[in-house]
Amino acid sequence: MQRFAFVVDVVPELREEYLRLHAAVWPEVEAALSAHHVTNYSIFVLEDTLFAYYEYVGDDHAADLAAVDADPVTQEWLSRTDPCQVPFGQGARPGDRWRALEEVWHLP
């Protein structure tokens, strides 16, 4: 199992829309993630910053995430959630959205 964590900022004016969407994530989106070995997925919010964490239990993370991204329902979901987000922090590069965090400690 691999752990992944990411951070992104939410557009302040779209914060409530983002939270409304995530109060009822589409079952097809959840099924696509589960089918591609993503488990224990959580998103937390602090003011205008979102923190996401998930565990990956498959053998090819990149291929599984590409399959999730290619799913038409997930693409529609992302077309609604992506506009609510802006890259976190000063080190963001063009095209960045969710920025990966480096794990520095873990209590098994």
Features:
5 strands, Alpha-Beta Plaits, 34% helix, 108 residues, alpha+beta
Model description:
With 108 residues, this protein is an alpha+beta fold. It has one domain: Alpha-Beta Plaits, CATH 3.30.70.1090. It contains four helices and five strands. The chain has helices spanning 15-22, 27-35, 61-70, 72-81; strands at residues 2-10, 38-46, 49-56, 85-86, 99-100. Strands 1, 2, 3, 4 and 5 form a five-stranded antiparallel sheet that branches. Strand 2 (38-46) and strand 3 (49-56) form a beta hairpin. The chain is globular. The chain starts with a strand and ends in an 8-residue tail after the last strand. The model has no long low-confidence stretch (mean pLDDT 95).
Topology overview:
Layout: E1 2-10, H1 15-22, H2 27-35, E2 38-46, E3 49-56, H3 61-70, H4 72-81, E4 85-86, E5 99-100
Antiparallel strand pairs: 1-3, 1-4, 1-5, 2-3
Q: What is this entry, summarized?
A:
With 108 residues, the protein is of the alpha+beta class.
Can you tell me the CATH superfamily? Dimeric alpha+beta barrel
The second-level CATH architecture is: 2-Layer Sandwich
Q: Which series of helices and strands comes N to C?
A: EHHEEHHEE
Alpha carbon gyration radius: 14 Å
What is the number of beta strands? 5
Largest sheet: 5 strands, antiparallel
Please give the domain count.
1
- Please state roughly what percent of the residues sit in beta strands, choosing from under 5%, 5-15%, 15-25%, 25-35%, 35-45% or over 45%: 25-35%
Amino-to-carboxy terminus distance? 12 Å
Helix and strand composition category: alpha+beta
